[in-house]
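Researcher: We plan to redesign the surface later, but first we want a full-length starting point. Tokens attached.
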């Protein structure tokens, strides 16, 4: 019985990181109604960024983790100006194809540079032992950092001038322009924040599990599931959706083969789309 409870707790810890990744995806959708299909590639970029920085400087992955957020932010701003800016306001298929093209370019470049072999970020962090089960220290640290980043994002969106501008543009772009808010710069910043969250989540995932250049696809799909659970355009709901998805994984892993976990997740995905199209956690950051 304790093993099942421990599996559930560990699933929640990992699920919180899924929620952080999905926060980036849903933030971009909530501000500009763009589904970012470079999301998986950005998660992988965070994985490789932390791996290369650790290799280069010989420090802990957690020391260089903030740098992955900065890398993700500037990469997101670049992607916005190159592939997204001219697609805003056009049919959704346009932005889907545009970001998908960038995604394939990034995957192609990564495959050319590193192939598809497994990489691993070595992290020495003591775990927490309760009974016969030890919770990995990397999982505990990842969940703690995810919570910290989520709190910082909330305060940024609610109480800073830039955050209020993002919420204003999200609520009514035309009205925001009328009161002098530079909407293009605000949209670029929002896309950069979403990309930074994806890269940061990738960096934390890399401390927990091995990865390849092609690992982003699976985590992108999980982000879509989490986004639907939490509600499109709802960063706080995305975090809760990630925890819910981790709870499902923790509940099912002791009883069924791991290969069936994705099947159950997408059954839940379809059910929520049909029964709760606005998500299970239906609240939004747009209103103060």
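Model: Full-length starting sequence:
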């Amino acid at each position: 019985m304790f093993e099942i409870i421990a599996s559930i707790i560990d699933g929640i810890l990992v699920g919180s990181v899924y929620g952080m990744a999905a926060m980036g995806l849903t933030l971009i959708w909530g501000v500009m109604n763009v589904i970012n299909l470079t999301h998986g590639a950005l998660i992988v970029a965070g994985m490789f960024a932390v791996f290369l920085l650790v290799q280069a400087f010989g420090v802990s992955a957690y020391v260089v983790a903030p740098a992955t957020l900065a890398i993700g932010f500037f990469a997101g701003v670049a992607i916005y100006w190159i592939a997204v800016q001219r697609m805003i306001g056009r049919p959704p298929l346009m932005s889907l194809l545009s970001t998908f093209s960038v995604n394939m370019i990034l995957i192609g470049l990564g495959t050319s540079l590193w192939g598809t072999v497994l990489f691993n970020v070595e992290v020495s962090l003591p775990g927490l032992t309760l009974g016969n089960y030890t919770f990995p220290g990397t999982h505990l640290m990842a969940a703690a950092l995810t919570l910290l980043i989520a709190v910082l994002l909330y305060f940024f969106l609610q109480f800073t001038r830039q955050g209020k501008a993002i919420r204003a543009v999200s609520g009514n772009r035309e009205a925001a322009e009328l009161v002098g808010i530079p909407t293009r710069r605000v949209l670029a910043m929002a896309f950069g924040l979403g990309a930074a969250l994806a890269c940061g989540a990738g960096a934390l995932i890399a401390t927990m599990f091995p990865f390849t250049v092609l690992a982003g696809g699976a985590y992108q799909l999980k982000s879509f599931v989490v986004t639907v659970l939490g509600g499109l355009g709802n960063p706080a709901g995305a975090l809760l959706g990630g925890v819910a998805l981790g709870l499902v994984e923790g509940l099912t892993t002791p009883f069924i083969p791991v290969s069936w976990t994705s099947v159950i997740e997408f059954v839940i995905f379809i059910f929520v789309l049909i029964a709760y199209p606005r998500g299970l956690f239906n609240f939004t950051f747009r209103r103060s």
